[in-house]
Amino acid sequence: MSLLAAEGLVKDFGGLRAIDDLSVSVDEGELVGVMGPNGAGKSTFFNCVSGVIKPDAGTVTLDGADVTGDPPESLAHRGLVRTFQNTRELETMTVRDNVRLAAPDQPGERTLPALLRSGSMQDHEKRVRERADELIETFELDHLADEYSSNLSGGQRKLLELARTLMLDPDVLMLDEPFAGVNPTLTREIADRIRDLNADGMTVVIIEHELETLTELVDRLVVLQQGRLLVEGDPEAVLSDERVIEAYLGGDAE
Amino acid sequence: MIATILVIGGLTLITLAAVTRLTEAPYGRVLRAIRADELVTRSVGKSTIVYKTQAFVYGAALAGLAGGVFALYNGAVAPGFFTIQVTVTIWIGMLLGGAANHRAVLAGLAVIMGLRLVSRFGLSVTPVSGDVFAAFRLVVVGLILVAVIRFRPAGIWGDPQELGVDR
Question: How confident is the model at residue A254 (pLDDT cuts 50, 70, 90)?
Fold first, then answer.
């Protein structure tokens, strides 16, 4: 059974139909790439699934439960976490605090344990700090740990965003253009990390323009065009599909 | 007089300690994250509406406590005591000291309140009427606000990087 499924999603912005009766499902442990020309509805699809915007019609199910229109915070608790196309760092916080923030179920985030500095809160915070430092080290950001994240480069921000989401140990990770504006070396590095995570059982959905990296990385490609599903399947097959070539290289689409 | 200072100073210290504890704990981390980017904070699983409501309630409760103490000290209160000028004065004190830093806010308020005391003294030695002097004082406070925003947007003791302002 699919872990994450979108059925018949529709979203209008004014008179523009951004996604139109779109159905995509992702199996547990799969690594799926979503591509399509500009304006194909990739980000809108992500936003609808991750609860950032409400779809006008259709349903989203996560692990069998209907989560259509659920807010991002409750989806995060259910194990679905996303990143953003234009990295959204908490710029006025340090790299460390960015990662620590994402720790789930921290009792110190409630007033009384925070005021009383309860033992369980302090123990928990100690584990959170260890885990955050581990992640920061894995992503080779340790020399920047005490910097404000506004001082980071584009690629470092992508790494930080990934580290932050991993703090939540999600079941489904949705990455919106994780390679955009990142140099080739770092792109390979991020791709390797994603592959490792997927090998460890995490389900990953990626939007990307960087076709080469994406086709190498994913198990299955989903191509959107004008808000609809154009083609899906094995990366090789999809890329040689005439409809895809036409959508990208011209025809009436662009 | 000394007893009054002790009581009010003590209450201030207790409040400062409680607020500092709260903001140094993970609770404060969530609040700072909401200030930085609410959508991201929600995306990592924090119910930001709860925090925003709580922050409002705690702020209102502290203001209520301060109002109660003020009433005890004065022996009487009337609606006319709490004009927009009180809000503006507190707000300017916060900006002057540096938002997001408890001690800086207290220091900023001390500066603004000190200015009022000095100007009260000034009134007795200048030959203008009280009305004219009050208007003049407002102009000075306004100029201070403009100067802070222009030259030190994070306040005197505030951290520009933490507040996300350009120097």
Answer: very low
- Which residues does chain A have within 8 Å of residue B22's beta carbon, measured at their own beta carbons? 111, 114-115
Task: Indicate if B49 and B101 belong to the same structural domain.
Answer: no
- The Cβ-side half-sphere exposure at B146, using a 13 Å CA radius, reads 6
B10-44 b/e (C-beta count within 10 Å ≥ 16 → b): eeeeeeeeebeebbebbbbbbbbbbbbbeebbbbb
Average pLDDT over every residue of A201-217: 87
CB of B63 less than 8 A from some CB of A: no
Same domain? For B69 and B87 the reply is no
The structure tokens listed for A107 are: 């009792």
Given A92, A93, A102, which is nearest B44 (Cβ)?
A: A102
Rounded to whole angstroms, the Cα distance separating A108 from A129 reads 13
Question: Of A26-40, A206-220, B5-19, B150-164, which one has max mean pLDDT?
Answer: B5-19
Do residues B89 and B74 share a domain? no
Q: What is the mean pLDDT of chain A?
A: 88
How distant is the Cα of A48 from the closest Cα of chain B, in angstroms? Answer: 13
Under 8 Å between Cβ of B144 and B95: no
Contact B46 A77 (CB under 8 A): no
User: Is A111 within 8 Å of B21 when comparing Cβ atoms?
Assistant: no
Say whether B22 and A97 touch across the interface (CB within 8 A): no
Question: Which residue range(s) make up the domain with B135?
Answer: 83-167
Are B10 and B54 within one domain?
yes
| Same domain, residue pair B88 and B34 | no
pLDDT of residue B88: 85
Domain boundaries defined on chain A: 2-88+170-249, 90-151
Q: Are residues B74 and B97 in the same domain?
A: no
Last residue of a domain, one of B48, B78, B108: B78
The interface predicted TM-score (ipTM) is: 0.86
Chain B partners within 8 Å of A148 (Cβ): 161-162
State whether A101 and B27 contact (CB < 8 Å). Answer: no
Domain covering A2-88+170-249 assigned CATH 2.30.40.10 in the classification: no
Task: Select from B19, B49, B78 the last residue of a domain.
Answer: B78
How far away is chain A from the Cα of B67, in angstroms, using its nearest Cα?
A: 23
Residues B9 and B22 in one domain: yes
Instruction: Give the distance from CA B10 to its chain's centroid.
Output: 18
Query: Which chain B residues touch A150 with a CB distance below 8 Å?
Result: 161, 164
Amino acid letter, B139 = V
What integer best gives the mean pLDDT of chain B?
Answer: 89
